Amino acid sequence: MTWLARHAQSIQAGSAILTAIVALAALIGVKVQLDQADRVQREQSAREAYRAHLSLAASMPDFAQPQDACRLLVSGQGGAYVAFVDHLLYSAEQMLAISEGWQRSFLDELAVHRDYLCMAEGPAGETEEMHALLSQFRNTACPTDPICG
Asked: Were both Cys, which of 34, 93, 102, 140 would link to 130 (CB 3.0–4.6 Å)?
């Protein structure tokens, strides 16, 4: 009897184990690739949201740098202004979820909308990142008595 014939059963078992290990490694590789693709897509989406907001701000300077946000809020453009700030908050939410280091930039951008953001009816933040950003902003920038309303 040859060595191969004597050890055939052990070789088959080893081959089965090796096949299972290779299959598991392939599954892990697919998971890593899918996670990476998802991360890249989220980063691209966040950057696109921020670029869209910058474009919107350039085309709507009265909303980007309001002279009197309180008056703007009660005017016929109040809803559009709220939507503009919501878009800023959305782009901030997207960027903060994928990348560190943007918090200071967004706090600076929120500063010009202080009158609206400090109102009791102002946005609360839908995500943990946004709630933390708005809380930090309100703790440092909002007066004790709201300016509007």
From this structure: 93
Residue 109: Cβ within 10 Å count: 19
**pLDDT tens for each residue of 85-136:** 999 999 998 888 888 888 888 889 999 999 999 888 888 888 888 888 899 9
Amino acid at 6: R
Structure tokens at 92: 């901030």
Q: Using the 8-state DSSP alphabet, how is residue 1 labeled?
A: -
Q: Decide: 94 and 49 in contact? Cβ < 8 Å.
A: yes
The span from the CA of 21 to the CA of 123, in Å, is: 51
Task: Quote the pTM value.
Answer: 0.74
Q: What is the DSSP string of 53-104?
A: HHHHHHH-HHHHS-S-HHHHHHSTTHHHHHHHHHHHHHHHHHHHHH-TT-HH
Distance (Å, whole) CA 129 – CA 135:
10
Cβ 91 vs Cβ 53: under 8 Å: yes
DSSP string covering 119-146, please?
STTS---SSHHHHHHHHHHHHHH--SS-
